[in-house]
Design goal:
With 582 residues, the chain is α/β, with parallel strands linked by helices. The chain has 23 helices and 16 strands. α17 packs parallel to α20 (494-516). The longest helix is centred in the last third of the chain and has 31 residues, at 394-424.
Length: 582
């Protein structure tokens, strides 16, 4: 279907035929996109509600609070880039977004990692938390709140929350004996382990433990969780993650330990200073304490600060904590539950989950240094269907980035600006609004933007990118079909006038693209915006309304053509690899 845009007969085809081919292409999705549409069905009503919700209510987007046992890697950068793209998209919709991220800094694994480096736990946490903040800056992450679970305000919040649950009668003391995964900070059922009692995620043996703990009465909330999952199919996304949660709940819920007797690096249990609060009972509260900014932990204060979260974006390995434990904890304390928990897949390398514990990570700082932040953000959001696992390949990384950002988008803008400079003194010849509504690029732009908006709303970033790349493909095909350079040779004729209008058509489509693709590649889109002659401060004020056709005005002076995305050359990549090896 894509090839028809570049067929040899295209130049002779009428515009109507071209428009029909474009429309068929955008709505003829790949099998992957078709699956994404099916998976998004349960989210449609929620999406529609949010698209109509501009009443000023805070829209809270969260990433996991990342464990600081070691430096951040691409597996933690990936969901943060996705959350950032979603937050940016929601801001374009005019919503009051609060984007929360941060670090989880208590627990046995942290103390062990610090000791191995000859550091005190807090010193280690400070160092790694700073590395996360630095990486988020490198990746252009536009977070509003960065919560650390060692912050005094957070620790007070955990104590207050614990007391609310304790006063509800949902915490009791008992002895526990079982298999414990230190890396997961979780007791495991033997049936869930692989050979030699190893954790299936970290591939390391679990250890036998027996100790007195305080337990949360999760089983008390069995029926309420069943009701939640049956009445709110959008609570867990994508739908196949909901199926996992349904399976866990169907097996029957068991009370879980929320304290540790042998772990010193943690928040002391308010009712028993000999124990520390379980790291997950501690860390989950970070989503609320980040919003409260030190205020008392009450449902009223939380609601006034933006709670409940609109979406928790988390890895599938921590889905149980967020979709089962967390709502029950919130109910116990009298708080509203989040609207949606979205469990994304793993980034893999050699078929295994990418993780610090396995030592098979990809360093995001290195990728940004070698290829730039736009490349990194685009590849991982475009190439991976968010929600499913995706494998990283450097060869494919370079191929995709060059083909999409350099050749398709960057070249379209640069060659059109070059023609405008040569033939129209770098001046927009007509108002883009004057372009007929039936113009095929205009028709296609409206369809592509509408589709991208739906896909962004559903967190289907790859499909949103696909729709917008199709707009650039259409622009390139239109340019080849119309061949304005031939019209400009007939100076002073209707052909030359039509050629000038064709350039306005292409540049208007690029202007729309610079707004619609900005959640994914904000820096690239800013450069595109500036090339069109706008000021930098204007880009900071754009909204989704700016994707409507008609923004370019006659007489607008554009910038001197300059590549917005230079192609990654093979020798550059090879040179970077050689340096890395040294």
């Amino acid at each position: 279907m894509v090839q028809c845009l570049y067929s040899s007969s295209a130049a002779a085809a009428p515009n109507l035929c071209f428009s029909l081919r474009c429309s068929r292409w955008i709505f003829s999705r790949s099998a992957k996109s078709a699956a994404a549409r099916r998976n998004s069905a349960a989210f449609t009503s929620v999406r529609a509600e949010k698209e109509n919700d501009r009443d000023g209510r805070t829209f809270v987007v969260t990433t996991p609070l990342y464990y600081v046992n070691a430096a951040p890697h691409m597996g933690s950068a990936y969901p943060t880039i996705a959350a950032d793209a979603f937050a940016r998209f929601q801001r374009l919709q005019g919503r009051n977004v609060v984007f929360v991220t941060g670090t989880d800094e208590h627990g046995e694994k942290i103390a062990t990692a610090a000791a191995a480096k000859g550091r005190k736990p807090k010193e280690h946490c400070d160092l790694i938390a700073n590395e996360y903040a630095s990486l988020w800056k490198d990746l252009n992450i536009s977070y509003d709140k960065f919560i650390r679970t060692t912050d005094e305000a957070h620790e007070r919040a955990v104590e207050q929350f614990y007391k609310r649950v304790y006063d509800k009668g949902d915490i009791y003391c008992a002895n526990y004996e079982g298999l414990y995964c230190v890396n997961c900070e979780e007791y495991k059922d033997a049936k869930d382990l692989i050979e030699e009692q190893c954790c299936p995620i970290h591939r390391k043996p679990c250890v036998e433990r027996k100790e007195k703990n305080y337990f949360f009465a999760l089983s008390k909330y069995q029926s309420r969780l069943e009701e939640l999952l049956s009445t709110r199919p959008d609570f867990v996304r994508p739908p196949f993650r909901m199926n996992e949660v349904l399976g866990w709940v169907k097996e029957g819920l068991h009370d879980f330990s929320i304290s540790r007797e042998a772990v010193e690096w943690g928040i002391p249990v308010p009712t028993d200073k000999k124990q520390t609060i379980y790291v997950w009972f501690d860390a989950l509260l970070g989503y609320i304490s980040a919003l409260l900014d030190g205020k008392e932990v009450t449902p009223e204060n939380a609601a006034a600060s933006g709670w409940p979260a609109s979406v928790h974006i988390i890895g599938k390995d921590i889905l149980r904590f967020h979709a089962v434990y967390w709502p029950a904890m919130l109910w116990s304390a009298g708080f509203a539950i989040p609207e949606t928990v979205f469990g994304h897949g793993f980034l893999t390398k050699d078929g295994l989950k990418m993780g610090k514990s396995l030592g098979n990570t990809i360093e995001p700082q290195e990728l940004v240094s070698r290829f730039g932040v736009d490349s990194v953000r685009y590849f991982f959001l475009n190439e991976m269907e968010f929600g499913r696992d995706g494998d990283y390949s450097e060869e494919r990384f370079i191929t995709i980035v060059n083909a999409h950002l350099a050749n398709t988008i960057g070249n379209l803008l640069n060659r059109t600006l070059g023609l405008l400079k040569k033939n129209c003194a770098s001046t927009i010849p007509v108002d883009s609004e004057s372009i007929p509504e039936e113009n095929p690029v205009r028709v296609f732009a409206e369809a592509a933007v509408a589709l991208a908006k739906r896909r962004y709303s559903e967190l289907h970033f790859s499909s949103a990118c696909e729709a917008l790349l199709s707009l650039a493909n259409t622009g390139n095909a239109y340019l080849e079909e119309r061949a304005p350079w031939t019209g400009f040779k007939q100076k002073g004729t209707p052909a030359a006038e039509a050629a000038a209008k064709d350039l306005a058509v292409i540049l208007e489509s690029v202007r729309i693209l610079s707004v619609a693709l900005s959640p994914v590649v904000p820096d690239l889109c800013r450069r595109m915006w500036l090339q069109l002659g706008y000021q930098d401060e204007h880009f900071n004020q754009i909204s989704w309304d700016d994707t409507r056709w008609g923004g370019l005005k006659a007489g607008q002076l554009v910038a001197t053509p300059s590549p917005v995305f230079p192609k990654i050359e093979a020798e550059v990549a090879d040179s970077s690899l050689a340096k890395a090896a040294v």
